[in-house]
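I'll show a record.
***
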Amino acid sequence: MALAPLRFCFDYLSPYAYLAWTRMPALAARHGRVLEPVPVLLAGVLNATGNIGPAEVPAKRGYIFKHTFRIAHELGVPFGPPPSHPFVPLLALRVTAAVDDLEARARLVSTLFAQVWGGGNGAETPEQVATALQAAGLDAPSLLAAAQRQDIKDRVRRNTDEAIAAGAFGVPTVIADGELFFGLDSLGHLELFLRGEDPLKSEFLERWKNLPATASRR
């Protein structure tokens, strides 16, 4: 029986998603899993879960750039801010969703992430996205046109809704056999899970779920 793919839910807005993506192909290969990049709209996830993005908290916005820059240095991957942030990622998400072949989609994800967080020129405008499509060896005019179709717009919306229904509250989120792993720092936990060595036992989880709350913040 074929193993279920690892669904990598992401938005190009997130530097943590970029850094996690640089690890994901090798991680999936180590465990014999297909890697399925799933473009979702982070704003939709945040709205549905009552959260705000890190870039919307001024003190956190500055810290996150420093934090992710240091992580990129540790990982040995290129890193630089996009021309603006936050930016509108919809076009990049939609052209990604329009690519059905997973290998080609993964290639495009790598190229778009490099343009956003790897020192490139960004991936917001049609011209910027076209550059990434061409660099990934894909048909830029065809995919830019596809991104305007309602079925492709609906595909990104459906991806987002499905991630929320699965319990996602941010990106990057990896869904593995129904279990969610959020954030770059959860990739080590994901590997334990895939090896059958997850230390979390069901009885501990049930206890946490049933803990009463004795304080609330208004």
